Amino acid sequence: MTRLVATAVAAATVFAPLAAAGPAAAAPPEGACQGTPDPAHEVVAELPWAQQLLDLNRTWPHSTGAGVTVAVVDSGADADHPQLRGKVLRGEDFFLVGNLPGNFDCVSHGTAVASIIAASPAPGVGFRGVAPDARILPVRITDRELSDNGDPTPINPGVVGQGIRYAADHGAKVINLSLSGHGDYRAIGDAVAYAQSKDVLVVAAVGNRAAQGTQPSFPAAYDGVLGVGSLTIGGERADGSQTGPYVDVMAPGEEVLAATRAGGHNYWAGTSFAAPFVAGVAALVRSAWPKLTAPEVADRILATADPAPGGRDSTEYGAGIVDPYRAVTEDLTDAEPLMVPPVVEPPVDHAAVQEADWWSGTSAAAKAGTGLVVLAIVVAAVLGWFLPRGSRRRWYAGRAPVLPDAPGHAETPDQMFLFPKAPGQRHR
């Protein structure tokens, strides 16, 4: 039976884990982690390629996402990470029984997603979130990425549905779902519709199973959900990023840098990490244009996307590559384009046509007459030079003076030796 699994679970490959170095992890509640919690990682100072591509410094003077809450329905989010401190709400844990918060993380997946959305800039650190003044509502629905044998870990659709409804009821204006599956589960579909009824924009990863051929992908395929595909540093669709009519827009998703639980950063890959870039842009737009409805925010993101190799509205690239600056700043209109008036041929003025023909004929005659006059002048000049000289010689032919003998020219030999012969070498 088809099972819903987290996108990163399906193919969220971690690139070259960095040696642990950073602040001690905030201890999760006792017994909250099924396995060994992900360790801290080193801080990466370089400006990541995704942030360079999006050029966020140009957007932030217009919007930083202030006043917008983005729900991360995932593995939780580490509220103690230095770049997330002060902006992660308590949230809720739907994975474990009991009144537990969602603001801790055992596997770093949710923390990475949250940081792509809203991590604050930090001195000496190039990585930062798309909407640094947005708030994160962590909704915990799992704490495993892979099972002990490396297979994707299934997530209970009912738990996912509960998490989506909770986010919609607790102030989220954007919900990020970095998960996907082939099954259309009623619990999730109804929860998405419920969130949309509360004017919440739902953003979802399209999945990483392109190698298995074109397949449905939920929740990205639900009406009104922004489905996000993964882009490589070269600007092309990642090999695993699924294709289909549910692909609405593209964002960086291969070897993207993001925060890890307990401090530091790591590199991640998959549509799970492309989706939060678009969720962050949605927060920027909702902050800058608070009167826009969720569908209008989605339309703005799609209308301002940059061109992609697949062309606009393709099943590989959707509308193109998300552009935060254009999404926030461009003035859009829903008015119909103006129609170009038809070309009306003026009536023929026969008198003007006759006059133009007369002038054209006159011009041709004048040119011919001028040519004959010039020819006559040239002939007269030639005769004026030739006749007197012929008369003086009584019309006998003249003779050219005899030229002196020219020096002879030696014939070039078949082969010329430009370098001295080696000892013992003989001519052929």
UniProtKB/TrEMBL annotation:
<keyword id="KW-0645">Protease</keyword>
<keyword id="KW-0720">Serine protease</keyword>
<dbReference type="InterPro" id="IPR023828">
    <property type="entry name" value="Peptidase_S8_Ser-AS"/>
</dbReference>
<feature type="domain" description="Peptidase S8/S53">
    <location>
        <begin position="65"/>
        <end position="320"/>
    </location>
</feature>
<feature type="signal peptide">
    <location>
        <begin position="1"/>
        <end position="26"/>
    </location>
</feature>
<dbReference type="InterPro" id="IPR022398">
    <property type="entry name" value="Peptidase_S8_His-AS"/>
</dbReference>
<feature type="active site" description="Charge relay system">
    <location>
        <position position="109"/>
    </location>
</feature>
<dbReference type="GO" id="GO:0006508">
    <property type="term" value="P:proteolysis"/>
</dbReference>
<protein>
    <submittedName>
        <fullName>Type VII secretion-associated serine protease mycosin</fullName>
    </submittedName>
</protein>
<keyword id="KW-0732">Signal</keyword>
<keyword id="KW-1133">Transmembrane helix</keyword>
<dbReference type="InterPro" id="IPR015500">
    <property type="entry name" value="Peptidase_S8_subtilisin-rel"/>
</dbReference>
<dbReference type="Pfam" id="PF00082">
    <property type="entry name" value="Peptidase_S8"/>
</dbReference>
<dbReference type="GO" id="GO:0005886">
    <property type="term" value="C:plasma membrane"/>
</dbReference>
<keyword id="KW-0812">Transmembrane</keyword>
<feature type="transmembrane region" description="Helical">
    <location>
        <begin position="368"/>
        <end position="387"/>
    </location>
</feature>
<comment type="similarity">
    <text>Belongs to the peptidase S8 family.</text>
</comment>
<keyword id="KW-0378">Hydrolase</keyword>
<feature type="active site" description="Charge relay system">
    <location>
        <position position="74"/>
    </location>
</feature>
<dbReference type="InterPro" id="IPR036852">
    <property type="entry name" value="Peptidase_S8/S53_dom_sf"/>
</dbReference>
<dbReference type="InterPro" id="IPR023834">
    <property type="entry name" value="T7SS_pept_S8A_mycosin"/>
</dbReference>
<dbReference type="InterPro" id="IPR051048">
    <property type="entry name" value="Peptidase_S8/S53_subtilisin"/>
</dbReference>
<dbReference type="GO" id="GO:0004252">
    <property type="term" value="F:serine-type endopeptidase activity"/>
</dbReference>
<feature type="active site" description="Charge relay system">
    <location>
        <position position="272"/>
    </location>
</feature>
<keyword id="KW-1003">Cell membrane</keyword>
<feature type="region of interest" description="Disordered">
    <location>
        <begin position="406"/>
        <end position="428"/>
    </location>
</feature>
<keyword id="KW-0472">Membrane</keyword>
<dbReference type="InterPro" id="IPR000209">
    <property type="entry name" value="Peptidase_S8/S53_dom"/>
</dbReference>
